[in-house]
């Protein structure tokens, strides 16, 4: 007990960037994590979408479509309606949201990594969506947008990469208008017996070698798999969303909890 108190005192005197955080199963200083995460996504950007399909057997598309259905973007908005998709990478969610609205809404993809954004911008240009989807480099912890700008905020498979998650959640709350919706899709904790064992075996034994073959480097995929296991349980994450100021916070599991969609509102 005395030892616990002593170590708590030691850690609280550290600067935030020196505080320990997880990079997959490795403990690193919080200030180191973002650079390591950025290396991962610079390396995988070109093959990111292909690997997503292989790693999830295409399920990530089903989960993302489900997220867009829950969001239900308006097809005839009374005024301009804009989504902010943070950690939006290659623009999957924004593309789906704009298309679901029959091109009636706009989206801003915000990501810290320009390699991911460049792939997304090319794709939006080819799809003829560059008038409706804007790509903006920025950090989820310190969003480059004024207060109360957006009608909805989405983040898909992004929040677990952010070093200071509570800070990112407070930023989400800040940039949303009153009545705005927050939706977060993330890999989560599997709560189906046997499925958890199969999923663990597949994740740790198959995904890094698959990454090695497709992208020439298995390490980024080892990080991705490990970071999923370090992410808070669905209930705890719902609590963190409430702590950031959101109301009516709920979540639903997809595929036995392999992924979960958390929802909250800013009133
Ligand atoms: C697994 S990808 C998800 C991309 C996309 N949302 C999707 O579902 O396909 C994670 C993304 O988070 C981005 N990211 C990591 N840390 C970030 C941060 N602090 N702020 C904004 N984006 C971040 C990475 O650059 C990467 O594009």
TrEMBL record:
GO BP annotations listed: methylation
GO molecular function: 2-methoxy-6-polyprenyl-1,4-benzoquinol methyltransferase activity; demethylmenaquinone methyltransferase activity
Enzyme Commission code(s) on record: 2.1.1.163, 2.1.1.201
Annotated signal sequence range: none
Start-end of Polar residues biased regions: 1-14
Swiss-Prot/TrEMBL keywords: Menaquinone biosynthesis, Methyltransferase, S-adenosyl-L-methionine, Transferase, Ubiquinone biosynthesis
Pathway(s) served: Quinol/quinone metabolism; menaquinone biosynthesis; menaquinol from 1,4-dihydroxy-2-naphthoate: step 2/2; Cofactor biosynthesis; ubiquinone biosynthesis
Span list, region Disordered: 1-23
Family annotation (Pfam families): Ubie_methyltran
Family according to the record: Belongs to the class I-like SAM-binding methyltransferase superfamily. MenG/UbiE family.
Functional summary from the UniProt entry: Methyltransferase required for the conversion of demethylmenaquinol (DMKH2) to menaquinol (MKH2) and the conversion of 2-polyprenyl-6-methoxy-1,4-benzoquinol (DDMQH2) to 2-polyprenyl-3-methyl-6-methoxy-1,4-benzoquinol (DMQH2).
Protein name per Swiss-Prot or TrEMBL: Ubiquinone/menaquinone biosynthesis C-methyltransferase UbiE
Annotated source species: Roseibium aestuarii
Gene: ubiE
